[in-house]
Amino acid sequence: MAGFDFPTPASAGRSSLSGLVVMAAVAALCLALSALSAAANPDRWQRQGWKTDFSRSSIDFAEILSGGPPRDGIPPIDDPDFLPAKDVSELDAKEPVMSVVIDGQARAYPLRIMTWHEIVNDTLAGRPIAVTYCPLCNAAIVFDRTIDGSTTTFGTTGNLRNSDLVMYDRETESWWQQFTGEAITGSRTGAKLEVIPSRLEAWESFRMRHPQGEVLVPKNPNLRDYGRNPYAGYDSSSVPFLYDGPMPEGIAPLSYVVVVREADEPLAVSLDRLRRDGAVTLNGILFTWVPGVRSALDTSSIAEGREIGSVAVTRDGKDVAHELTFAFVVSAFLPGTTILE
Questions:
Q1: What are phi and psi of 332, to 5 degrees?
Q2: Label partner for 338 (CA 20 to 30 A): which of 97, 204, 227, 266?
Q3: Domain containing 154: what range?
Q4: Of 37, 50, 321, 51, nearest to 192 (Cα)?
Q5: CATH number of 148's domain
Q6: CA separation for the pair 115, 113 (Å, rounded)
């Protein structure tokens, strides 16, 4: 959750002292997990004011951990402000943004803002959308926020499951898993949100592809330390934060992986494989390596993060919904999926 400074340094060459700090932090984390999960129960949540129908659930409540902040302590953006791309100058050319295009209208949502808010309730080309980003999973996903013909908005519960953001809809207060887009407890348990194709790309790439596009800007630039990464060194660490689920085999848990879930069986390709080969085609879907994109989870300044690149996923030239996430996320939510390395 935003506000956590991960103790691992961003550089690959960690000192032995830093390693001890990390191991101590991990040990403390393991001790804390049982206490956190023990506190995760419907009676406690109802005392906190939740009106969620916890009698309906598809998960074990012990899997839900407190991330620290309370409900909407990481405040979603409900009335977003935008500027024309040509008028934005403070972003580094290689800084990562989420980009969405609907009916020819394009918008970019910089991760320097998304890291601190995680959800933007927006409307683009007349379509109500929820733009979401979970830093701990590097999961940048856009949903249609219409459910069974009813339009809702989403907030943050302050909780995590498998290190992933747990959202809630404000209409029924059902809780939703961000990575899967599925309601996991509440009256809407089992419902799934429609995923809208989006990209994680460099700011310069978006500006070149969509010169008439718009860019999300903060209403109050002083509300948060926009541009700072509160998870410095996270994607160079050896273990995920607040995660005690299955780990992937043969690949580091925080290795970047591209996932497509629209096929009968999920597809997963490591970013290292794409960097090495340039492109991979699976089941008619083209995964193309895109250089020049910085990590938002490396140095404390996002504008100075190391270049990790990104990916374009297309079929017949059209964007396909996908996620650039971590290997442990595949193990947690898509067990049995083979990652092409």
A1: -70, -45
A2: 97
A3: 81-217
A4: 321
A5: 2.102.10.10
A6: 5
